[in-house]
């Protein structure tokens, strides 16, 4: 078997495989480019605030939060562990997510993502995830 394999044959074989892999990578990259953009996501280093026109009422230790926009009100049952975070966000100021009071950092990010998708919170423009 070794006597039938030459260096030139091996080089051609590997060049062919590399070319095939490059083509597959180009096709995959094109597929990714054609996908719709991802929805914004809250990260621990994100800056966010209550959405414009939204008010929140939540006291520390409560198991529900009240979100109001104009005449519309949404009562949201929450974990008591998230109440201090929502009480802080109720001030309407911009906050770094990792500065919000919540013992579990995963819960902090998840609650913020849910509230953003419900239109209660918004990311602050100018956030740069690379910083």
Overview of the molecule:
By secondary structure, this protein is α+β, with helices and mostly antiparallel strands. The longest helix has 28 residues, at 7-34. The strands form 2 sheets. The protein has a 3-stranded antiparallel β-sheet with strand order 5-1-6, with helices on one face. Strands 2-3-4 form a 3-stranded antiparallel β-sheet, covered by helices on one side. 37% of the residues lie in helices and 19% in strands.
Helix proportion range: 25-40%
How much beta, percentage-wise?
Answer: 15-25%
Number of helices: 3
Distance between the termini: 57 Å
Structural class: alpha+beta
Strand count, sense and barrel status of the largest sheet are: 3 strands, antiparallel
Mean pLDDT: 89
What strand order characterises the main sheet?
A: 5-1-6
How are the elements arranged and paired?
Elements: H1 7-34, E1 47-50, E2 54-57, E3 64-69, E4 72-77, H2 83-89, E5 95-96, H3 105-117, E6 121-123
């Amino acid at each position: 078997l070794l006597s039938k394999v030459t260096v030139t044959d091996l080089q051609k074989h590997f060049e062919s495989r590399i070319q095939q892999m490059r083509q597959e990578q180009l096709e995959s990259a094109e597929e990714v480019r054609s996908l719709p953009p991802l929805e914004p996501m809250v990260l621990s280093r994100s800056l966010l605030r209550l959405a414009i026109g939204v008010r929140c009422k939540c006291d520390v230790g409560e198991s529900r939060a009240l979100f109001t926009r104009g005449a519309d009100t949404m009562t949201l049952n929450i974990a008591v562990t998230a109440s201090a975070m929502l009480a802080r966000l109720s001030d309407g100021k911009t906050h770094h997510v990792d500065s919000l009071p919540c013992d579990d950092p995963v819960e902090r990010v998840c609650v913020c993502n849910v509230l953003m998708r419900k239109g209660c919170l918004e990311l602050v423009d100018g956030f740069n995830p690379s910083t």
